[in-house]
TrEMBL record:
PANTHER family: PTS SYSTEM N,N'-DIACETYLCHITOBIOSE-SPECIFIC EIIB COMPONENT (PTHR34581). This is PTS sugar transporter. It comes from Microbacterium elymi. Residues 103-134 are annotated as: Disordered. Residues 112-123 have a biased composition (Pro residues). Residues 1-105 form the PTS EIIB type-3 domain. The modification Phosphocysteine is found at residue 7. The keyword Ligase does not apply.
Length: 134
């Protein structure tokens, strides 16, 4: 399982990911953990299984869940006291729980969204000339 830990700039997620790697090694699992910043979306989701969000990103969860669902990635928000998890066991337990939770229809990415149709904009020639003179 590939676990991505995301925060705003990538700093606090680095600590959580490092501790997660320790917990993974301690249990002898074939998992991996990496820290990313919010700016790394959507590319960081390509090979991920679980996305753990820093507590300060909880307000962005709905949008991040939509982005992640398009890649088949499960999402959870880390608890506010996660930075006190010195051995990474709580973060690993949360990732395992999220990865193995059953998928409900509400969790699935929507498939019935119609494409957006944008009508062409017709600019009168005299207005186009004004714009070109600016």
């Amino acid at each position: 399982m590939k676990i991505i830990v995301m925060c705003g700039a990538g700093a606090s997620s680095t600590f959580v990911a490092q501790r997660l790697r320790g917990a993974i090694a301690e249990r002898g699992l074939a998992h991996s953990a990496a820290a990313v910043s919010l700016a790394s979306l959507p590319g960081c989701l390509d090979a991920a299984d679980v996305l753990l969000l820093g507590p300060h990103l909880s307000d962005r969860r709905p949008q991040l869940e939509r982005d992640a669902a398009a890649h088949g990635v499960r999402v959870a928000v880390l608890p506010g006291d996660i930075f006190g998890d010195r051995d990474g066991r709580r973060a690993l337990a949360l990732a395992d729980e999220v990865a193995h939770a059953p998928i409900s229809p509400a969790d699935a990415a929507p498939t019935d969204i119609p494409p957006i149709s944008i009508p062409p904009i017709n600019i009168p020639p005299e207005r186009a000339d004004e714009r070109n003179q600016r």
